[in-house]
Specification:
Helix 1 (about 30-40) crosses helix 15, helix 4 packs parallel to helix 5 and helix 8 packs across helix 13. Strands 3-4-2-1-5-6-7-8 form an 8-stranded mixed sheet, sandwiched between helices. The protein has a 6-stranded parallel sheet with strand order 11-10-9-12-13-14. By secondary structure, it is of the alpha/beta class. Helix content is about 40%, strand content about 15%.
Length: about 450
Protein backbone atom coordinates (compact mmCIF):
# COMPACT_ATOMS: atom_id res chain seq x y z
CA UNK A 1 0.00 0.00 0.00
CA UNK A 2 2.94 2.34 0.44
CA UNK A 3 2.00 3.48 3.96
CA UNK A 4 4.71 4.26 6.49
CA UNK A 5 4.19 3.46 10.13
CA UNK A 6 4.11 6.58 12.25
CA UNK A 7 6.55 5.68 15.00
CA UNK A 8 5.41 8.67 17.04
CA UNK A 9 2.33 6.58 17.78
CA UNK A 10 4.43 3.75 19.20
CA UNK A 11 5.83 5.63 22.18
CA UNK A 12 3.71 3.64 24.60
CA UNK A 13 1.54 0.55 24.44
CA UNK A 14 -2.24 0.58 24.78
CA UNK A 15 -4.41 -2.47 25.33
CA UNK A 16 -7.93 -2.61 23.90
CA UNK A 17 -10.66 -5.19 24.42
CA UNK A 18 -12.94 -5.38 21.37
CA UNK A 19 -16.39 -6.94 21.81
CA UNK A 20 -18.31 -7.73 18.63
CA UNK A 21 -20.87 -10.17 17.31
CA UNK A 22 -19.68 -10.16 13.68
CA UNK A 23 -16.10 -11.26 12.96
CA UNK A 24 -14.45 -13.41 10.26
CA UNK A 25 -14.98 -16.03 9.04
CA UNK A 26 -18.52 -14.61 9.11
CA UNK A 27 -18.98 -13.01 5.70
CA UNK A 28 -20.61 -9.69 6.57
CA UNK A 29 -19.79 -6.01 6.24
CA UNK A 30 -20.12 -5.74 10.01
CA UNK A 31 -17.37 -8.32 10.49
CA UNK A 32 -14.84 -6.37 8.43
CA UNK A 33 -14.88 -3.29 10.67
CA UNK A 34 -13.63 -4.88 13.94
CA UNK A 35 -11.41 -7.25 11.98
CA UNK A 36 -9.55 -4.30 10.45
CA UNK A 37 -8.86 -2.95 13.93
CA UNK A 38 -7.56 -6.32 15.06
CA UNK A 39 -5.51 -6.57 11.88
CA UNK A 40 -3.76 -3.19 12.11
CA UNK A 41 -3.81 -1.99 15.74
CA UNK A 42 -0.55 -3.71 16.65
CA UNK A 43 1.30 -1.72 13.97
CA UNK A 44 0.42 1.46 15.88
CA UNK A 45 1.21 0.34 19.41
CA UNK A 46 -2.12 -1.15 20.45
CA UNK A 47 -2.51 -4.73 21.65
CA UNK A 48 -6.04 -5.94 20.76
CA UNK A 49 -8.06 -8.74 22.28
CA UNK A 50 -11.33 -9.63 20.56
CA UNK A 51 -14.27 -11.43 22.14
CA UNK A 52 -16.65 -12.71 19.47
CA UNK A 53 -18.57 -15.84 18.41
CA UNK A 54 -17.54 -19.12 16.83
CA UNK A 55 -18.59 -18.39 13.27
CA UNK A 56 -17.80 -21.27 10.96
CA UNK A 57 -20.48 -21.98 8.37
CA UNK A 58 -20.84 -20.56 4.89
CA UNK A 59 -23.56 -17.90 5.03
CA UNK A 60 -25.65 -17.53 1.85
CA UNK A 61 -29.14 -16.95 3.28
CA UNK A 62 -30.30 -15.47 6.58
CA UNK A 63 -31.22 -18.83 8.12
CA UNK A 64 -27.69 -20.13 7.48
CA UNK A 65 -26.50 -17.97 10.38
CA UNK A 66 -28.44 -20.29 12.68
CA UNK A 67 -26.76 -23.41 11.34
CA UNK A 68 -23.27 -22.66 12.60
CA UNK A 69 -21.70 -25.66 14.30
CA UNK A 70 -20.46 -24.35 17.62
CA UNK A 71 -18.32 -26.00 20.26
CA UNK A 72 -19.40 -25.53 23.85
CA UNK A 73 -15.79 -24.78 24.73
CA UNK A 74 -14.21 -21.34 24.55
CA UNK A 75 -11.78 -21.17 21.63
CA UNK A 76 -8.73 -18.91 22.01
CA UNK A 77 -6.60 -17.99 19.00
CA UNK A 78 -3.35 -16.12 19.62
CA UNK A 79 -1.11 -14.55 16.96
CA UNK A 80 1.36 -11.72 16.54
CA UNK A 81 -1.62 -9.42 15.86
CA UNK A 82 -3.39 -10.16 19.14
CA UNK A 83 -5.85 -12.58 20.72
CA UNK A 84 -9.30 -13.70 19.55
CA UNK A 85 -11.58 -15.36 22.09
CA UNK A 86 -14.55 -17.14 20.49
CA UNK A 87 -17.59 -18.04 22.59
CA UNK A 88 -20.26 -20.64 21.69
CA UNK A 89 -23.22 -19.53 19.59
CA UNK A 90 -26.53 -19.65 21.43
CA UNK A 91 -29.96 -19.84 19.80
CA UNK A 92 -33.19 -18.58 21.35
CA UNK A 93 -36.57 -20.30 21.06
CA UNK A 94 -37.88 -18.57 17.88
CA UNK A 95 -34.63 -19.46 16.09
CA UNK A 96 -34.90 -23.09 17.17
CA UNK A 97 -38.46 -23.18 15.84
CA UNK A 98 -37.26 -21.77 12.51
CA UNK A 99 -34.61 -24.46 12.19
CA UNK A 100 -37.06 -27.23 13.09
CA UNK A 101 -40.05 -26.22 10.97
CA UNK A 102 -38.54 -24.04 8.22
CA UNK A 103 -39.06 -20.41 7.21
CA UNK A 104 -42.59 -20.91 5.83
CA UNK A 105 -44.20 -22.30 8.97
CA UNK A 106 -45.21 -20.77 12.31
CA UNK A 107 -44.30 -17.27 11.06
CA UNK A 108 -46.68 -15.34 13.34
CA UNK A 109 -45.66 -17.40 16.38
CA UNK A 110 -41.96 -16.84 15.60
CA UNK A 111 -42.48 -13.13 15.05
CA UNK A 112 -44.25 -12.73 18.40
CA UNK A 113 -41.56 -14.71 20.20
CA UNK A 114 -38.74 -12.75 18.50
CA UNK A 115 -40.32 -9.48 19.60
CA UNK A 116 -40.72 -10.79 23.14
CA UNK A 117 -37.11 -11.97 23.32
CA UNK A 118 -35.76 -8.74 21.86
CA UNK A 119 -37.71 -6.55 24.26
CA UNK A 120 -36.82 -8.49 27.38
CA UNK A 121 -33.18 -9.04 26.47
CA UNK A 122 -32.60 -5.52 27.76
CA UNK A 123 -33.90 -6.36 31.22
CA UNK A 124 -32.86 -10.01 31.69
CA UNK A 125 -29.96 -12.12 30.47
CA UNK A 126 -32.39 -15.06 30.27
CA UNK A 127 -33.67 -13.67 26.95
CA UNK A 128 -30.33 -12.45 25.58
CA UNK A 129 -28.74 -14.77 23.01
CA UNK A 130 -25.53 -12.71 23.01
CA UNK A 131 -24.91 -12.89 26.77
CA UNK A 132 -21.93 -15.23 26.53
CA UNK A 133 -19.97 -12.32 25.05
CA UNK A 134 -20.65 -10.33 28.23
CA UNK A 135 -19.81 -13.13 30.67
CA UNK A 136 -16.57 -13.96 28.83
CA UNK A 137 -15.61 -10.26 28.84
CA UNK A 138 -16.36 -10.06 32.56
CA UNK A 139 -14.21 -13.14 33.19
CA UNK A 140 -11.40 -11.61 31.14
CA UNK A 141 -11.54 -8.31 33.04
CA UNK A 142 -11.23 -10.06 36.39
CA UNK A 143 -7.63 -10.87 35.42
CA UNK A 144 -6.71 -8.23 32.81
CA UNK A 145 -6.98 -4.45 32.74
CA UNK A 146 -7.11 -3.02 29.21
CA UNK A 147 -7.05 0.72 28.64
CA UNK A 148 -10.29 0.74 26.63
CA UNK A 149 -13.25 -1.47 25.82
CA UNK A 150 -14.34 -0.96 22.21
CA UNK A 151 -17.81 -2.30 21.41
CA UNK A 152 -19.32 -2.26 17.93
CA UNK A 153 -23.03 -2.55 17.24
CA UNK A 154 -25.33 -3.73 16.18
CA UNK A 155 -26.57 -5.83 17.87
CA UNK A 156 -26.95 -2.87 20.18
CA UNK A 157 -27.57 -5.06 23.22
CA UNK A 158 -23.75 -5.22 23.29
CA UNK A 159 -23.75 -1.60 24.51
CA UNK A 160 -25.42 -2.88 27.66
CA UNK A 161 -22.24 -4.86 28.30
CA UNK A 162 -20.09 -1.73 28.03
CA UNK A 163 -22.38 0.02 30.49
CA UNK A 164 -22.23 -2.85 33.00
CA UNK A 165 -18.51 -3.54 32.61
CA UNK A 166 -17.64 0.13 33.13
CA UNK A 167 -19.75 0.22 36.29
CA UNK A 168 -18.00 -2.85 37.69
CA UNK A 169 -14.42 -2.35 36.52
CA UNK A 170 -14.19 1.40 35.80
CA UNK A 171 -12.59 0.88 32.37
CA UNK A 172 -13.60 3.51 29.77
CA UNK A 173 -15.63 2.12 26.89
CA UNK A 174 -16.27 3.32 23.34
CA UNK A 175 -19.62 2.87 21.59
CA UNK A 176 -19.02 2.21 17.91
CA UNK A 177 -22.21 2.70 15.89
CA UNK A 178 -21.98 0.95 12.51
CA UNK A 179 -25.53 2.26 11.98
CA UNK A 180 -27.86 4.38 14.02
CA UNK A 181 -30.04 2.83 16.73
CA UNK A 182 -32.71 5.44 17.44
CA UNK A 183 -31.42 7.17 14.31
CA UNK A 184 -31.42 4.03 12.16
CA UNK A 185 -32.17 4.80 8.50
CA UNK A 186 -33.90 1.44 7.97
CA UNK A 187 -36.16 1.10 11.03
CA UNK A 188 -37.33 4.71 10.67
CA UNK A 189 -39.49 3.48 7.78
CA UNK A 190 -41.42 1.20 10.18
CA UNK A 191 -44.03 3.61 11.53
CA UNK A 192 -46.78 1.20 12.65
CA UNK A 193 -47.80 1.35 16.30
CA UNK A 194 -45.89 -1.79 17.34
CA UNK A 195 -42.61 -0.65 15.83
CA UNK A 196 -42.97 2.84 17.22
CA UNK A 197 -43.44 1.34 20.67
CA UNK A 198 -40.38 -0.89 20.20
CA UNK A 199 -38.28 2.07 19.04
CA UNK A 200 -39.37 4.09 22.06
CA UNK A 201 -38.63 1.13 24.36
CA UNK A 202 -35.14 0.66 22.95
CA UNK A 203 -34.37 4.39 23.00
CA UNK A 204 -34.88 4.32 26.76
CA UNK A 205 -32.04 1.80 27.03
CA UNK A 206 -29.88 3.54 24.43
CA UNK A 207 -29.90 6.70 26.54
CA UNK A 208 -29.17 4.69 29.69
CA UNK A 209 -26.26 2.69 28.26
CA UNK A 210 -24.60 5.61 26.46
CA UNK A 211 -24.62 7.67 29.65
CA UNK A 212 -21.30 6.24 30.88
CA UNK A 213 -19.46 5.65 27.58
CA UNK A 214 -16.34 7.76 27.04
CA UNK A 215 -17.09 8.67 23.45
CA UNK A 216 -18.80 7.52 20.27
CA UNK A 217 -17.41 6.42 16.92
CA UNK A 218 -19.44 6.40 13.70
CA UNK A 219 -18.80 5.53 10.02
CA UNK A 220 -19.60 8.97 8.61
CA UNK A 221 -19.90 12.64 9.70
CA UNK A 222 -23.69 12.76 9.25
CA UNK A 223 -24.39 9.97 11.72
CA UNK A 224 -21.52 10.97 14.02
CA UNK A 225 -22.79 14.53 14.36
CA UNK A 226 -26.36 13.37 14.97
CA UNK A 227 -25.27 10.85 17.62
CA UNK A 228 -23.02 13.40 19.31
CA UNK A 229 -25.93 15.82 19.66
CA UNK A 230 -28.39 13.13 20.71
CA UNK A 231 -26.21 11.80 23.52
CA UNK A 232 -24.14 14.91 24.23
CA UNK A 233 -20.94 12.97 23.65
CA UNK A 234 -17.68 13.58 21.84
CA UNK A 235 -17.49 11.56 18.64
CA UNK A 236 -14.93 10.41 16.11
CA UNK A 237 -15.61 9.48 12.49
CA UNK A 238 -13.98 6.16 11.54
CA UNK A 239 -14.87 5.36 7.94
CA UNK A 240 -15.41 1.73 6.95
CA UNK A 241 -12.82 1.86 4.18
CA UNK A 242 -11.32 -0.83 1.96
CA UNK A 243 -8.23 -3.03 2.14
CA UNK A 244 -6.33 -2.22 -1.06
CA UNK A 245 -6.77 -1.60 -4.76
CA UNK A 246 -7.87 -4.73 -6.58
CA UNK A 247 -5.58 -6.12 -9.27
CA UNK A 248 -7.37 -9.10 -10.75
CA UNK A 249 -6.98 -10.86 -14.07
CA UNK A 250 -9.96 -9.79 -16.15
CA UNK A 251 -11.72 -11.92 -18.76
CA UNK A 252 -12.06 -10.72 -22.32
CA UNK A 253 -14.27 -7.64 -22.62
CA UNK A 254 -17.95 -8.63 -22.65
CA UNK A 255 -20.23 -7.34 -25.39
CA UNK A 256 -22.83 -6.61 -22.73
CA UNK A 257 -22.86 -3.33 -20.81
CA UNK A 258 -22.66 -4.52 -17.20
CA UNK A 259 -23.98 -2.54 -14.22
CA UNK A 260 -23.48 -3.98 -10.73
CA UNK A 261 -24.95 -3.27 -7.33
CA UNK A 262 -23.21 -5.28 -4.62
CA UNK A 263 -24.57 -6.14 -1.18
CA UNK A 264 -27.38 -4.77 0.95
CA UNK A 265 -30.26 -2.80 -0.54
CA UNK A 266 -32.16 -0.81 2.09
CA UNK A 267 -35.82 0.16 2.00
CA UNK A 268 -34.89 3.81 1.54
CA UNK A 269 -32.41 3.41 -1.31
CA UNK A 270 -33.90 4.61 -4.58
CA UNK A 271 -33.41 1.53 -6.78
CA UNK A 272 -36.50 2.51 -8.78
CA UNK A 273 -34.52 5.42 -10.25
CA UNK A 274 -32.43 2.97 -12.27
CA UNK A 275 -35.18 0.43 -12.90
CA UNK A 276 -37.45 3.13 -14.30
CA UNK A 277 -34.68 4.37 -16.61
CA UNK A 278 -34.15 0.86 -17.99
CA UNK A 279 -37.89 0.25 -18.36
CA UNK A 280 -38.35 3.46 -20.33
CA UNK A 281 -35.39 2.65 -22.59
CA UNK A 282 -36.83 -0.82 -23.20
CA UNK A 283 -40.31 0.51 -23.95
CA UNK A 284 -38.76 3.01 -26.34
CA UNK A 285 -37.08 0.01 -28.05
CA UNK A 286 -33.61 1.51 -27.51
CA UNK A 287 -32.11 -1.38 -25.50
CA UNK A 288 -32.40 -5.15 -25.19
CA UNK A 289 -31.42 -7.61 -22.47
CA UNK A 290 -28.64 -8.88 -24.72
CA UNK A 291 -27.04 -5.43 -24.55
CA UNK A 292 -27.40 -4.45 -20.88
CA UNK A 293 -27.22 -6.54 -17.72
CA UNK A 294 -27.95 -5.29 -14.21
CA UNK A 295 -26.36 -7.41 -11.45
CA UNK A 296 -27.61 -7.44 -7.85
CA UNK A 297 -24.94 -9.38 -6.00
CA UNK A 298 -26.17 -10.82 -2.69
CA UNK A 299 -29.71 -9.49 -3.09
CA UNK A 300 -31.36 -12.89 -2.59
CA UNK A 301 -30.17 -12.80 1.02
CA UNK A 302 -32.77 -10.05 1.62
CA UNK A 303 -36.18 -11.49 0.56
CA UNK A 304 -38.16 -8.25 0.89
CA UNK A 305 -35.75 -6.20 -1.21
CA UNK A 306 -35.36 -9.07 -3.68
CA UNK A 307 -39.14 -9.07 -4.22
CA UNK A 308 -39.13 -5.29 -4.54
CA UNK A 309 -36.66 -5.44 -7.44
CA UNK A 310 -38.08 -8.52 -9.16
CA UNK A 311 -41.67 -7.26 -8.93
CA UNK A 312 -40.95 -3.78 -10.25
CA UNK A 313 -41.71 -4.92 -13.81
CA UNK A 314 -41.81 -8.36 -15.39
CA UNK A 315 -40.45 -6.69 -18.51
CA UNK A 316 -37.11 -6.09 -16.78
CA UNK A 317 -36.56 -9.58 -15.40
CA UNK A 318 -34.49 -10.62 -18.42
CA UNK A 319 -32.13 -7.69 -17.71
CA UNK A 320 -31.59 -8.71 -14.08
CA UNK A 321 -29.14 -11.15 -12.55
CA UNK A 322 -29.34 -11.77 -8.80
CA UNK A 323 -27.31 -13.99 -6.47
CA UNK A 324 -27.43 -15.16 -2.84
CA UNK A 325 -24.71 -13.92 -0.53
CA UNK A 326 -21.41 -15.09 -1.97
CA UNK A 327 -17.82 -15.23 -0.74
CA UNK A 328 -16.22 -11.82 -0.37
CA UNK A 329 -13.51 -12.43 -2.96
CA UNK A 330 -16.18 -13.44 -5.49
CA UNK A 331 -18.19 -10.28 -4.79
CA UNK A 332 -15.10 -8.13 -5.29
CA UNK A 333 -14.38 -9.95 -8.56
CA UNK A 334 -17.85 -9.01 -9.81
CA UNK A 335 -17.01 -5.36 -9.12
CA UNK A 336 -13.83 -5.49 -11.20
CA UNK A 337 -15.56 -7.27 -14.07
CA UNK A 338 -18.32 -4.63 -14.31
CA UNK A 339 -18.41 -1.54 -16.48
CA UNK A 340 -20.17 0.60 -13.88
CA UNK A 341 -20.85 0.20 -10.15
CA UNK A 342 -24.13 1.44 -8.72
CA UNK A 343 -24.54 3.37 -5.47
CA UNK A 344 -28.18 4.15 -4.64
CA UNK A 345 -28.82 7.14 -2.39
CA UNK A 346 -31.65 7.53 0.10
CA UNK A 347 -34.21 10.29 -0.23
CA UNK A 348 -34.17 11.67 3.31
CA UNK A 349 -30.95 10.30 4.71
CA UNK A 350 -27.24 10.66 4.04
CA UNK A 351 -24.82 7.75 4.28
CA UNK A 352 -21.73 6.30 2.65
CA UNK A 353 -22.66 2.65 2.37
CA UNK A 354 -19.83 0.21 3.00
CA UNK A 355 -20.03 -1.22 -0.53
CA UNK A 356 -18.90 2.14 -1.93
CA UNK A 357 -15.43 1.67 -0.43
CA UNK A 358 -15.17 -1.69 -2.18
CA UNK A 359 -16.16 0.12 -5.36
CA UNK A 360 -13.26 2.54 -4.85
CA UNK A 361 -10.92 -0.45 -4.59
CA UNK A 362 -12.10 -1.73 -7.98
CA UNK A 363 -11.22 1.58 -9.73
CA UNK A 364 -14.38 1.31 -11.82
CA UNK A 365 -16.73 4.29 -12.38
CA UNK A 366 -19.32 4.68 -9.63
CA UNK A 367 -22.76 6.00 -10.56
CA UNK A 368 -24.64 7.71 -7.72
CA UNK A 369 -28.37 7.29 -8.36
CA UNK A 370 -29.80 9.79 -7.78
CA UNK A 371 -27.50 12.60 -6.64
CA UNK A 372 -27.92 12.96 -2.87
CA UNK A 373 -26.31 16.41 -2.82
CA UNK A 374 -24.55 15.20 0.30
CA UNK A 375 -22.04 12.70 1.69
CA UNK A 376 -22.19 10.13 -1.09
CA UNK A 377 -21.87 12.58 -3.95
CA UNK A 378 -19.19 14.52 -2.08
CA UNK A 379 -17.10 11.35 -1.69
CA UNK A 380 -17.39 10.50 -5.39
CA UNK A 381 -16.54 14.05 -6.44
CA UNK A 382 -13.69 14.39 -3.94
CA UNK A 383 -12.02 11.18 -5.09
CA UNK A 384 -12.94 11.71 -8.78
CA UNK A 385 -14.37 8.21 -8.85
CA UNK A 386 -17.56 8.53 -10.83
CA UNK A 387 -20.67 10.49 -11.77
CA UNK A 388 -23.89 11.59 -10.14
CA UNK A 389 -27.28 11.88 -11.85
CA UNK A 390 -30.07 14.24 -10.89
CA UNK A 391 -32.71 13.02 -13.37
CA UNK A 392 -33.78 9.79 -15.02
CA UNK A 393 -33.50 11.45 -18.44
CA UNK A 394 -29.83 12.28 -17.82
CA UNK A 395 -29.16 8.68 -16.80
CA UNK A 396 -30.94 7.33 -19.88
CA UNK A 397 -28.86 9.54 -22.15
CA UNK A 398 -25.62 8.40 -20.47
CA UNK A 399 -26.51 4.70 -20.72
CA UNK A 400 -27.34 5.03 -24.41
CA UNK A 401 -24.04 6.80 -25.06
CA UNK A 402 -22.09 4.09 -23.26
CA UNK A 403 -24.01 1.35 -25.03
CA UNK A 404 -23.13 2.90 -28.39
CA UNK A 405 -19.46 3.08 -27.39
CA UNK A 406 -19.61 -0.58 -26.36
CA UNK A 407 -21.12 -1.61 -29.68
CA UNK A 408 -18.47 0.39 -31.57
CA UNK A 409 -15.64 -1.23 -29.64
CA UNK A 410 -14.58 2.14 -28.24
CA UNK A 411 -13.51 2.95 -24.68
CA UNK A 412 -16.30 3.58 -22.20
CA UNK A 413 -16.34 6.45 -19.74
CA UNK A 414 -13.29 6.10 -17.51
CA UNK A 415 -12.15 7.72 -14.29
CA UNK A 416 -8.83 9.16 -13.16
CA UNK A 417 -9.22 8.88 -9.40
CA UNK A 418 -7.26 11.02 -6.97
CA UNK A 419 -5.23 8.18 -5.46
CA UNK A 420 -4.08 10.21 -2.46
CA UNK A 421 -7.70 10.94 -1.53
CA UNK A 422 -8.81 7.39 -2.23
CA UNK A 423 -6.00 5.86 -0.15
CA UNK A 424 -7.03 7.94 2.85
CA UNK A 425 -10.07 5.63 3.01
CA UNK A 426 -8.15 2.38 3.40
CA UNK A 427 -8.97 0.38 6.51
CA UNK A 428 -5.34 0.64 7.61
CA UNK A 429 -5.45 4.43 7.47
CA UNK A 430 -8.75 4.49 9.35
CA UNK A 431 -7.32 2.17 12.02
CA UNK A 432 -4.43 4.61 12.42
CA UNK A 433 -6.86 7.49 12.91
CA UNK A 434 -8.76 5.54 15.56
CA UNK A 435 -5.49 4.73 17.35
CA UNK A 436 -4.60 8.42 17.46
CA UNK A 437 -7.98 9.23 18.94
CA UNK A 438 -7.75 6.49 21.56
CA UNK A 439 -4.29 7.60 22.64
CA UNK A 440 -5.29 11.25 22.79
CA UNK A 441 -8.20 10.33 25.06
CA UNK A 442 -6.02 8.08 27.20
CA UNK A 443 -3.77 11.05 28.06
CA UNK A 444 -6.66 13.11 29.37
Amino acid sequence: MGFKINFALLNFSVRVLIICNDFPPLNSVGAQRPYSWFNYFNEYGIEPTVITKQWTAKIERAEDVLKNASSEKIIIDKSEKGTVIRVPIELVLPEKILLKFGADKKRIWRKMLSLFYKMFSFVSFSFDKHKRLYFEARKYLQHEKPDFILITGEPFILFKYGYLLHKEFGIPWVADFRDGWKLNHVTRHNRDMLNRFLQSWEFHFEKKYLRNCSFITAPDPYLGTALGKLHKKNFKVVYNGFEEFLNLDLPDQSATLTLTHNGTLTAGQQVEFLLQALLELHNEKKISSAEIQLNFIGLEYYPTQYSRVKNFSNTLNSYLKTTPRIARHEALKHNVESDFLIAFSEKNYQAIFAKVYDYLAAKKPILVLPNDNGLLSELINETKSGLTFQTIEALKKFLLEQLQEKKSGKNLFTISPDNEKVLSYTRKKQAEQLVKFLKENQKR
